[in-house]
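I am writing to request your help with a piece of structural work I have in hand. I set the record out below, with my sincere thanks for your time.
___
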Amino acid sequence: MLKGKDLISIHDLSADEVYEILDFAADLKVMQKNSIPHRYLEGKTLGMIFEKSSTRTRVSFEVGIFQLGGTGLFLSNILYIMHYFRKNNVTFLF
């Protein structure tokens, strides 16, 4: 039901879709507890940019993405780098 749908705001979801997400989360929790592999994010990468430094939040996201078969990429200083490039008229080539 949610495949291919982007989640921007919880308000964009119907009550049924919220229940579907919660049911799926409960299933994943049971699978994790029983050591049943679940690699739903195999081959996916999560790029993480945090406005404020938070080791606990970063580690939680990294563990979660790893448990689902994906990879977490922490972009620690990306905001500073982008500001520096703009200030010094450096052009991004990608």
Remarks:
- Helices lie at 15-33, 55-67, 78-87.
- The longest strand covers residues 45-48.
- The chain has a mean pLDDT of 84.
- The chain has three helices and two strands.
